[in-house]
Structures are given as C-alpha cells and as structure tokens.
Amino acid sequence: MTALGAKPPGMLLPDHCDEDTHNIYRRRFCNQELHHNVTRMNKKSVSRQQEAMIEMIKVSKYYPVNVVALQDVSVSISTGELFFIIGKSGAGKTTLLKLVSSMELPSNGLIEIAGKPTSKLKGVKLARLRQRIGVAYQDFKLLADRTAAENIAISMEVSYKKPQIIRKRVRELLEQLDLTDKHGTITGELSRGEQQRVALARAIANSPTMILVDEPTGNLDAATTERVMNLLHKCNKSGATIVIATHDETIYKNSPHRVMELKHGAVHSLTGGLLI
Amino acid sequence: MTALGAKPPGMLLPDHCDEDTHNIYRRRFCNQELHHNVTRMNKKSVSRQQEAMIEMIKVSKYYPVNVVALQDVSVSISTGELFFIIGKSGAGKTTLLKLVSSMELPSNGLIEIAGKPTSKLKGVKLARLRQRIGVAYQDFKLLADRTAAENIAISMEVSYKKPQIIRKRVRELLEQLDLTDKHGTITGELSRGEQQRVALARAIANSPTMILVDEPTGNLDAATTERVMNLLHKCNKSGATIVIATHDETIYKNSPHRVMELKHGAVHSLTGGLLI
Amino acid sequence: MSFWFTVIRQVGRNLRQTWGSQLMTLFTVTLSVLIFAFFYLIYSNMLHFGDKLGDDLRLIVYLEEEPGPELQQQLRKKIEQFDQVESIRFVSRIDAYERFAEQLGDNRGVLDDMPKDFLPPSIEVIPLKTLSSLNQVKLFSSYLRKLAGATKVQYGQEWVERFYNFTRLISIIVALSGILLIMTTIFMVAYTIRLTILGRQDELELLKLVGATNNYIRTPFFLEGLLQGVLGSTFGIASLYILFQWIQNHFSGPGFLNMFEFSFFSPSVSLAIICVSVLLCTLGSYSTMHKFLRI
Amino acid sequence: MSFWFTVIRQVGRNLRQTWGSQLMTLFTVTLSVLIFAFFYLIYSNMLHFGDKLGDDLRLIVYLEEEPGPELQQQLRKKIEQFDQVESIRFVSRIDAYERFAEQLGDNRGVLDDMPKDFLPPSIEVIPLKTLSSLNQVKLFSSYLRKLAGATKVQYGQEWVERFYNFTRLISIIVALSGILLIMTTIFMVAYTIRLTILGRQDELELLKLVGATNNYIRTPFFLEGLLQGVLGSTFGIASLYILFQWIQNHFSGPGFLNMFEFSFFSPSVSLAIICVSVLLCTLGSYSTMHKFLRI
Lengths: 276, 276, 295, 295
Ligand SMILES: Nc1ncnc2c1ncn2[C@@H]1O[C@H](COP(=O)(O)OP(=O)(O)OP(=O)(O)O)[C@@H](O)[C@H]1O
Ligand SMILES: Nc1ncnc2c1ncn2[C@@H]1O[C@H](COP(=O)(O)OP(=O)(O)OP(=O)(O)O)[C@@H](O)[C@H]1O
Ligand SMILES: [Mg+2]
Ligand SMILES: [Mg+2]
Prior knowledge:
The complex is a heterotetramer, with two copies of chain A and two copies of chain C.
Chain A: H1 21-39, E1 52-63, E2 67-78, E3 82-87, H2 93-100, E4 108-113, E5 116-117, H3 123-131, E6 133-136, H4 148-157, H5 163-176, H6 192-205, E7 210-214, H7 222-237, E8 241-245, H8 249-252, E9 258-263, E10 266-271
Parallel strand pairs in A: 3-8, 3-9, 6-7, 7-8
Antiparallel strand pairs in A: 1-2, 1-4, 4-5, 9-10
Chain C: H1 2-17, H2 19-54, E1 59-63, H3 69-82, E2 85-91, H4 93-104, E3 122-127, H5 134-145, E4 150-154, H6 157-198, H7 201-209, H8 214-251, H9 267-293
Antiparallel strand pairs in C: 1-3, 1-4, 2-3
Helix pairs in contact in C: 1-8, 2-6, 2-8, 6-9, 8-9
The complex binds adenosine-5'-triphosphate (2 copies) and magnesium ion (2 copies).
C-alpha cells in the first residue's frame, strides 16, 4: 500500500467508488498537513514517514463504576492503510472505533484525525468530519421502518448528493452485496445477514476517506464474507483508510495488513504490515 | 447420543443443569408418546425409531410480495439430538427456527413438537410449550434497560421459580460464560459479544427440553466460542434437544452431529449424524 | 400464591423502573378527574342557582273587580289547571292601599284624603320552583291574562327575562366547556395509557416469547391501572375539595356565597366518582394492552 | 438551494411516514387552540355582559326639599366629586307626580283630588358603566346618602346585588376553568411533541452519526412545527367560529342573544391568536428537539 502522494496518477479507480474520492481527499486535508508535520515531531511514533490518518496517543476510556474499556492505547494508522483490530469479546474494539469516529470522547489521551484533535471539534466541523467517516456499527443502527435503499441513501443525503447520483450508487452497492431483490424491503424484515450488508453499504456509500467497520461478517457465511471483503479492499485501493474490528480469523490471517490485538483494553500485540 | 430411555440411570448430570431436567422431560411428554407412535406410521421419515422431538413435514413459509423464505422443508429431529442448520445469508435458517418456536405460523405444511401440531396450540398451552423451549434470537431481544441478571432471570420467572433458585442459577450461568463482573450492568451498556452470551444464558436458564440457538457465536472470538459450545454440549448431554443455526464452520465441521444445509429456503443437503 | 408473589414483585419493579411515565399517567388521571368533577360540581350547583333565582318570581294579575269567595275558588281552580303553583293570594283593594301606604312611608299622610279603593285588586301567584324556563313563565302569564276579569299581568318582566337568559347562557357555556374538556380528558388518558404500553412493547413481546401466560403479562398492568385510578381520582377529588374550600374562604364576602349556597359533593357522590374513574382506568389499560398483546 | 430541496423532501417524507403521530399532534394543537379561544371569547364577551347588566342601574336619591338651581349646581358638583357619572337628573315633586299618574294609567283619576306635591323630589343618578363592582355601587350609595338634604337612596338593591354576585361567580368559574384548561393544554402539547420526537430519536441519533449538520436535522422539525401551528390554530379558530354560528342560530330565541350581544373575535384578534400559536408550536418543537439532540 502506498501513501497518497505516491499513487500513479493514471491509475484507474474501481467503478464502485466515486472517481473523485482521491481528489476530494486531497483537497480536504492538504491544508492540515503543514500543521500536522510540525506537531508530529514531538510524538512517540515518529518512525513512519507517511501521513497518519488516525493518531491515538495514550488514549484511555473509562465507563462509570470501574469499567476500564481502553487503557493507554497508542497507535498511528496511516492514510490509505487497511488495519485490523482483534481481541476477545469485551476487549475494547468497539470502544476504540467509537472514539475514532468521535461518537464518544476519551477519558484521557489525545486522538487526532488527519492531524486535527477530535476533542475540540464541534457543530458544523464535527458534522463535516463525520460525513467523511463511514461507520458500520456492530448493532447496525438501521432504521427498521425504512427500506434498504432509503437506509443506504441517508449517508449521501446528508452531504446533499443529487437524487439521481444517490439512486445509481444505491443500486450499484446493492448489486455488489447480492441484495438486488431487497431494494424496496424495509430493513426490519430483512435477515440479520442482509441487515449487516445494508449497514456496510451505508458506511461506504458516500465514498468516505475513512471507513470504520465493526465485526462486518459476524452474521455472514464464507461466500458472502468474501464478497464483503472484496468490496472493502476495492475501497481501500481507491484511497480510503479502513479500520476493521473483527474476531473472524479468515479475513485477517493471511492478509498483508497490520493487525492489532487488544486485551482487557490495552494493546497486546501489533503484528503484520508487510507492505508498509 | 442415546435416546432418553436408554440413559444409564446413575449417570451424573453436570451441575449447571437442573438435576431434574430429565424427569421433568419424561413427565411432560410421556402422555403424548402413545398418540405419537400411532401417527408416526403414516409419516415419511419412519426409518428412525427414536422419539422425534421436532417433526416438520413439507413446511413452507412465504412472506408478502413474493418472498419464499422456506419451501417444502421436511425434517425430523430426535429427542436429545444436537442439530446444525447452515446456509447462506438469507437461506431461511432463522425462519425455520421461528416456525419451530411457533413465533410464526407456517404458510403450508405441518410442524409437530413432541408429537403435537403447533398450529393448534393457543393461550396457556402455547405459553407452556414456550416455557420448555429456550430460544437465543439472532437479534438477542434483550431488554436494554435491565441488568444482565434481570434479563436472564426473566425466562425463569415466567415459570414461577423461587427467587433464591433464580439467583443461584443466574450466578452460575454468568460465571460459566465469563460474565461474572457484568452481573449488575444494564445490557444496553454491554459489548455486543457480552450481549450475545446473555441472550444465550437466558435461553438455557430455565433448563428447557428444547434449545434453539440462532448464530450463537457471530460476535464471539474463538476462545469464547468454545466456552459457549461447551455449555451447549453439556445441556445436550443432560437431555435437551438443541438446534443451532450458524455459519461458523469451526463449530460444526468436525462434530459427529447432523448438519442440514438450506439453500434458497429448500433443504440442500443433510449430512453427518455418526452417533445416531 | 407464587403467581401473586411474582405479579406483585413485577408491579413493584415496574413502578420503580418506569416511574416517570407512571407519574405522567397519574398526573393525567388526576387532572382529568379534577376537570370532570369541577364541571360536575358547577353543574349540580347550577340547579340550586335556578331555585334561588326563581324564589322571588311572582306573577301579579290585576283584576277589574274584587272577586267574591266563590269566584276566588273558581279562579284558584283555573290557575291550578295550568300548573301546580306554590301559592295564590288574593289582594283586595284595601290590601293594595295599605301596601302602597307602607311604601310611601313618611309621606303616607298624602293618602289621607284619598278613597281607600283607588288601587285595583289583584291575585299574587307564586309559581312552583320547577317552572324554570322563561317560555313557561311567559305562557303562564298569557294564560293568566285570559282569566275572566284580568286586566294586566305583571311579573317584573324585564328582570326575570334577563335572569333566565343569563342562566341559560351560563348553562350553554358550562355544557360546551364540559364537552370540550371531557373530550380532551378522554383523549389524554387514552393517549397516555397507549403510549405507556407502547413504550414497553418490547418487554411484552419478550415475555410472550419466553412463555409467559397472558395472565402473567396482564395482571401487573391491571393492578397498575387500578392503583393509578385509585390514586389519581383520590388526588383529583382532594384537590378539588381544597380548591373549593379556598374559594369559599376567599370569596365569601357579605351575603355573597350565602346567597348562592355552594355545596361540595356528598361523600357518596365522591366515592362514586372515584369508583367510576378506577373502573375506567382499569378497563382502559386492560383493553389497550389486550389490543397490543395480539401480536 | 440543494439544502432546501433536501429539507423539503425530508419534510414530505416525514409527513408521509409518521402521519399517525403528526395527525395526533395536529389534533392536540387544534383542540388546544379551540379551548383557549373558547375561553378567551367568553371572557371578552363577559365584559359586555357587565355593561348590559349595568345599563339600567340608576340610584335615586330622595330629598327633603326641592333644591333651587344653585343647590342643584352644588349637589351636582358633590356627586361628581365621588366619581364621573353618566348623567344626573333632578326630579321635582311635580315630575314625580306626573310619573306616578302615568304609572297608574286608567286609574289616574283617583289622583285628581290630591295636591300635586305629595311625592318627594329626587335626584336620578346613572353611574358610569365602569362602575361594575357591587362594593363600588354600595359605596356610592352611602356617599349619596350623606348629601345634605338626602333622606333615602334607592337602587333596586336586591336585584342589583344578585346580579353582581352572579357575574362575580361566573367570572370565578370562567377563570378557574380557563386556568385548568390552559394547564391541560400546555401539558398536552408539550407531551405530544415530546413523544413525537422521542419516537424518532433513533433517526435523529443516526443522522448525527452520519454527519448531518444541526440545521439539516432541525429544519424539518422546525417546518413541521410551523405547519402544525398554522393548520392547528386555523382549524381551531375555524371550528370555534362554526360552533359560534351554530349557537347563534340555534339559541337566538326572541330577545335572547339580542340582549347579550355576542360577538366573535375581530379578524385581527383571530390572526393574533393564530400567530401566537404558530410561534408557540414552532418554538416548542424546536426547543424540545434542541434538548434531545444534545446526545
Ligand atoms: N418478516 C419478513 N418479511 C419479509 N421477508 C422476510 C421476513 N423475514 C425474513 N424474510 C426474508 O426471508 C428470507 C430468509 O430469511 P431468514 O431470516 O430466515 O434468513 P437467514 O438464513 O436467517 O439469514 P441470515 O444468515 O442472514 O440470518 C430472507 O430473504 C429475508 O429477507
Ligand atoms: N456504555 C458503556 N457503559 C459501561 N460499560 C461499557 C459501555 N460500553 C462498553 N462497556 C464495557 O467496556 C468493555 C469493552 O467494550 P467493547 O464494546 O469495546 O468490547 P468489544 O471488544 O467491542 O467486544 P465485542 O467483541 O463483544 O463486541 C466491555 O467490558 C463493556 O462491557
Ligand atoms: Mg464490539
Ligand atoms: Mg438468520
């Protein structure tokens, strides 16, 4: 995996992702790079020279009455990286993703997304950031009384995409996830695995620069899992940074990407990363 | 696995299941055996001589507007059997379990539980039947504002178990599922995998004679999966009939139990069953 | 026994866990009972007003000639033919003169030289208090006018008319407000109960799925409805009573409330109101839940 | 532009998908406006009643001696010292005699032999219509009693007292009902809006999570509140008007409503009511949502 700047300019982007993802990405973040380059000098993980998309420094998260969900987690995830988080049930994977998507604030420590500390974001700026992060939640958070298509469209509507573009993209995604015949079914009537795919489709629909997926294959069989992973790899190839929290060995075992194992909220190991 | 009558009388039951499960089972169903023996003669699957706990004959389920969830499924599951249902996402696994637990009625065909057709059950009789079936739903159906302990207790309260017995059993189950410290946490604040285990605990808490589990390990890592499967095996050994719908190869690949594969709502294959 | 034990524990738990919406329902019931009882109180007291206002109503029939005892008997009969009356009094010329003299007071001297029969004789008819509509009074008056020898019928037309119209207006207002309020109230209680149950539909559904019998599910709701009915209506009646006392203390200026003697419900009526609202609450929550349980 | 396009599509979709609860809110708003306007209408018309009832109020001050022009001037001044009055008329002995004769009608012949000055002279005072409380009338009367030469003050005490008490009672009733109802109404609207938003909390939360700006989330609610306010209050006022017309047609018996001339709100007052309720609705839904959005 190469950093953004090093990408061959003529490279054909896969048709499932908007052609301009890359450019949008550059436009959005380039003004922050300067600041980032300066501040990064003082940080622990200075070894890697790429742009860090997610930078966590000694992040802890405590929940009321003695629950330590995360403890002193430091990690830096590069732009365009595909990153796996694994760990036992209750290890803190979901909590970490929640912090990164700024659904929750850390109790301690610093989180920077594309060089900007998230704790200071508010209002419109926070909304803009979230538009560029696609999240597939572990409990899906689908609107049970809307159709699959409407659920997927939501993430595009909030950034005022044109209806015909939305319609086209929704149909594309449904086809790629083998859900073509569920276009107009309300999600409350879908099978669990179908719901999971709709949630994933919503996460990547808006061609976000960062995609967080929490247990994307928990309800899927081997064949469908592969389909989903292919889609995620495609997005990754077109420039999106992807973080996957999972317990499914098959999807990370033989991959060339970094895998971080959490244990009781702390980083237990950080392995892989052959290509970087 | 042996049929109930053949069980060695002195065999020690595992301490996590009520000692009298076996006896309760016999008391409850023996009066139906006669009727069952007579009617069974006319059925398709007469080959096996054990008591069939679940008998499905040409069962179909259609949902409004052209959804065929199940099509002509016939299967007979013996008392005390451990039975796997596999299949692609959307194949109809959950639908089958819903029909067996009489959450929904079949569009066509006959379903008998312990020799009694479910379609005719109503009111108190239906409630009694459900008390003897433990179901772990794929979407858990936990009450998010109650504690884990309260959620597990519900299935015992409906059959008027004594509070001290309930308390003891809940603590036992939580311990076996590695959730001891989550006893008083409301389930809305648990991690997804923890919720899944609470749902499972609720299903088996009342020592039901039949346990239906839908994707019990979708959110669990390998170690926890083993823990869960051990618990289910123990329940099975003490006499409960267990049906597991899953996509997780690891839990059924090397097992000696029967595995039914569904494809587009129809039975695709039925393999295994070495011990029977 | 273990059924009731479980059910009561359930009720206790529900009250603890959903006290917010329980309190809301209680408040709604209280308000509704208060509103209903308030209008009922006004209505039942308005009947008294009618009496009071009718108290002084007397029709005076002026006659050409003073009737003899026989004629008096005849007239009396004729009058009573129209309707039962409270009393009939014949006022002779002399009586009328005396009254007039009395009214003149100090100036009665001026009458000294006058013949004592210059004023006409009359009959004073005091109708029954049931004669409460203006039309009836008018009918009665025109009936009296047609009696043999009657020259004129007087009953302070203007004031009486005004009073009756006023009472009538008030009853329309009370009736309309009452209807509006009772509509609102029914709507509110129904909606609140519906929402309370809707908010716990997940729980109800789960209970069904784990094999709870219908009684197991319904009895707690039934008891909660009962409790809410009892508390709500008691609070409602109690606060109305306090309001009533406050008004009586605060507004009983000289001769004001003595005149329109306001009275609170008798204990038995209060009890009846409480019983009815308890019944309604219980039935309401029971039937709503019944509907929602047919999943 | 694309913002408004999206927002309006959103509103349309919401209305289609949640028309049940939308209708409920609309009904609540309509009922509330109806109730409020109803009581306001009664209240504003009650002021007229007061006028009408006071119309015939006149205090008659009987005097010992007929006052000369100078004394008349003095008396007039003294009376006006107490309060502005509508009119003051001096009735001489002769005037009083003529009136009395007129009242006797056919029987006036009996007065032929009498001296024309046997009746006392008097002053007729018609107070301003603003003099509306019984106490004020009483005060005025006792003030008049103390004028030099006054022997007695009459004003049909009994009837006036009764009337004033009655009006007072009615105003208490109207005020109390009004307060009760407005409480109920506010409670209802707030509760309904709260519940409507609560029922869509999942959606709101999701919208936040996928990066909708606050305006994107709030504007549809704002517009819905606006729409509901406009429709609800218009319906409310309209149904009150229909009710009003119905009453007028149905109850305008001879001289009934001519007397208490009921009038509906002027268009500008109607408009003001509509505006205020639109404002309240919009603010209400906006602020409720504001509260819920702080997740
Ligand atoms: N209530 C419903 N209304 C309409 N269609 C339904 C309903 N429930 C299920 N279906 C459809 O029936 C088919 C079978 O669903 P089912 O839930 O049984 O699948 P499944 O095998 O459990 O899949 P998964 O592994 O994803 O849970 C699916 O295509 C689903 O969309
Ligand atoms: N809102 C909360 N309040 C209290 N405790 C919480 C809350 N959310 C999570 N926790 C606790 O924090 C710990 C980590 O939770 P987290 O959801 O991150 O686990 P996870 O790694 O995602 O597990 P799983 O694989 O089961 O999803 C768990 O023990 C959980 O019970
Ligand atoms: Mg998780
Ligand atoms: Mg399923």
